[in-house]
Amino acid sequence: MHKLSILIFFMVIAILHGCNSDSKSGQHTKGNSPTKDTTAEKISVTKTNYNIYIENSASMDGYVKQPSDFKNGLYKLIGDIHNYNLSQKLRLNFINDTICPQKVNAPTPDIIYFIENLKPTDFKNSGCEVKNSFLPNIISKAVSANPKDVNILISDCIFSSQKGSSKDFLSAAKESMRTFIKTELDRNDISCVILKLSSQFYGTYFIENKSATKKTEVLTGQKRPYYIILFGNSLSINYLLQKIKFSTYPGFETSYYLLTPNANKPKSKIIRTNKIGDFEIEQPATKLTINDAKAGGKNPNENQFQFSVASNLEFLKMDETYLSNSANYEVPSNYSLIAISKNDDYTNESLKGFTHVFTVRTSDLKQNQEVFIKLKSKLPPWVDSSSTEDDSNPLDSVQQKQTFGFKYLIEGISEAYADKYEGKEQFGINVKVSSNNYDKHGSSSKFPWLLLLLIGCIIGILLFFKNKKS
């Protein structure tokens, strides 16, 4: 009996140790294992065909009449596609009511020579030059002609139609755009990038505001916006963005990305930079858990609480202007995204392997909350500021930066993506913030009932043998 008691004693010790190890092991699995870095590896993609479509309505003449940033931008685009060996076949087309091929798989020097010598008469002599352009039809032709390829539309994106220019017409055109893009998204995996650039304009600007007294205005080199819109499958577009830096293009202003969302959770960790209040970082910092959070501290506003998260966004091949714009992000309603900074300090070992730092603040610190930072494909403010319904004075410094009816076009495209990918984001970071201990919150529900049952069984066995012996 004495030997049996010793054996059972060691069994209990082993069980207790095992449960304790499991508990620690569970904590390790949950918190101490490195956060999975879903940063995309170097993309390997089969080369695809590239189709460039230059809108050749009469409103585009002013960009090609003389040397301009428009032409220089086209040189750079074609040169980049060639130099980075992106395309299997490169086709250059004019587009309007119809698609008019100009250079099909021609040597790159021939295409560049063609662009260098491009003139308004080339538009007219192509056989498909018209005065008016209905953008939803142009975009639908550019995308649907070769939906598996990378299709690049270059246009001034002015809504121009003999049917009128009222808000009712523009709203109807937006819905037409939305319906078409949604249909294409249902058929194919398509990502979209919209770039705004500007270029010198020499020639006649056609005023679209039907109530304007003048119908045209001659410009003599004033800057006018134009746009490059890219459509293609997500792998091809991501690979293109990995190689081409559009922010270096002459006249580049800004961009809008509608990429197929994949809800990546990038490698991230909590840092103490720019904190307000006080907190403890549960280790490792990649666990993204803050305990003992307290607002105020030395800050004059005793209700404020602020912390920062470092993340690796290398997998997102987006222009920095888009990533650093807080309007493109979503955080909880009681938090504000205060700053997004690029990590350019390569000597800082603590930030090695992290590309960006996000700083968030609240004046309403909850006892326990998951604080998320999500990059959404939200319509950026520049779309609205780049649009006008009054282009009656093209010499006006504000109107020179605007495009008639532009926001209706982009809203149509954006809403189609929202319809298709509702609730999805480009990436998300979730940080657990607690005023005590987040993981122990509600820990009473984790009482070791199984251990208690095993101990009870052991005691029962002891009593059984004791009674049997007696």
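^ that was protein a. below is b, sequence first then the tokens
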Amino acid sequence: MKFRPLHDRIVVKRIDAEQKTASGIIIPDSAQEKPSQGEVIAVGPGGRDESGKLIPLDVKVGEIVLFGKWSGTEVKIDGQDLLIMKESDIMGIIEGGTATKKKAA
């Protein structure tokens, strides 16, 4: 990827939601909610405090994060749909390290 986020911004790739429910009903794309978890693709160097000191980010590339439904700005880079958001938009890191698909209700 040829994009480097600045300051406390993070690039996230959404993790696709399940295509069918537990009972086997296939959910059309138009009825699916956008998933609120994703994999961190790139991170900026961090923010700065009042004295100008660099504060590194807590999030690292490759981690799976949970974010709000309306968080970030959707962009298309190298043919991929990605989100650019601030670190404060991320609610937390999902421990376990691997991308899991979100179950449909």
